[in-house]
Design a protein that fits this description.
The structure is a homodimer of 195-residue chains. Chain A has 195 residues and is α+β, with helices and mostly antiparallel strands. Helices cover 50% and strands 22% of the residues of chain A. In chain A, the strands form 2 sheets. The first copy, chain A, has a 4-stranded antiparallel β-sheet with strand order 1-8-3-6. Chain A has a 4-stranded antiparallel β-sheet with strand order 2-7-4-5. The termini of chain A are far apart.
């Protein structure tokens, strides 16, 4: 637990460039929460009221289609932020769910508290704006890969962009993230192992 | 020409809620430019230094794969903004091109001038931040559609989200945007016409 938190402190000090006082302020507004495997953080239709930093573990954001199939739009590993941005910013019912793929420890801020922090820590606001922009580029590039590449190219890109993730989730979840069938992905993996 | 500009003024006054003085300031920092059909606004590898508002006409943003195939990530019609955000914000070589699909009239701001406007018109900064967020939601939802839907569902979604666009661009460009083959899309359109 102390190690996780030390990682968060280093990230805040070095990456966000918070002062010690700002870091303490940020932490004092947060609540730490331990999630069991499969525990749900956000359901479809709920309003997402929280910003989340993952100290340890692994979350996914996904949406369930009318036919019951699940489609994963994001994997979030330790050391990263997550939320459901549209629901969080506009207070609208979420079209996505978030749950834990492993036992996970998160820090959680309510929107009201995080907005208040922006006034007290202008650097935090600038950092968050930059994260939103970066997220936009990542999504555009992922969209480009999805429309321009075949299943094998998409899988190779995933392995590059998500080091270590492929070993932590079942094959059908990677297939869901890539938008390919489990059978296709299974064939690609077998061919690569043999090749 | 006057009509186009009247539309821009109405948009600035009603949607962005600019005062008359702010609107004049915004316009005074811009340059109007007329583009021929197929004229290029941004090449891959160039740094995107401009923010663009389309008064009249139609642009596309696309990327060319190593194999020479073109993949369209965005159609931008009159009354909307465009830029290549990653290159624009980070001053990095653009991975995308922007060109005109029809004779097009745009208003153009350099990044330096637009950043200066943010200091003079705080409302413009808030509006731009909201556009970036909205863009993120749109891209996430488009990604969801792309990974969760078959070619026919994707085409139907495109027709709904891009009213009028399907009649303005050749079939192979819609196929490129959807990430499906021209043959598949042609089959879907024929079946829908017959159905």
């Amino acid at each position: 637990m102390n190690n996780m938190f030390a990682g968060f402190e280093a990230y805040c000090r070095e990456d966000i460039k918070l002062t010690e006082a700002e870091f303490k302020l940020l932490c004092s507004a947060s609540v730490e929460r331990a999630l069991r495997r499969k525990e749900v953080l956000l359901r479809m239709g709920e309003i997402c009221k929280e910003k989340i930093f993952i100290l340890d573990g692994f979350l996914r954001t996904y949406r369930v289609k009318e036919d019951g199939s699940e489609h994963i739009v994001q994997f979030s590993t330790e050391g990263s932020w997550t939320t459901e941005p549209e629901s969080y910013h506009n207070a609208t019912p979420s079209q996505y769910c978030i749950d834990a793929l492993e036992p996970t420890t998160v820090m959680v801020w309510t929107k009201a508290d995080f907005d208040a922090l922006f006034l007290q820590i202008p650097r935090m606001k600038a950092f968050t704006d930059k994260m939103i922009s970066d997220n936009m580029y990542i999504n555009r590039n992922r969209l480009y890969t999805t429309i321009s590449s075949n299943a094998e190219e998409r899988y190779d890109e995933f392995i590059k962009s998500h080091p270590g993730v492929a070993n932590r989730v079942p094959l059908h979840m990677i297939a869901s993230y890539l938008g390919v069938s489990r059978e296709t992905l299974s064939r690609i993996r077998h061919a690569q192992v043999k090749g």
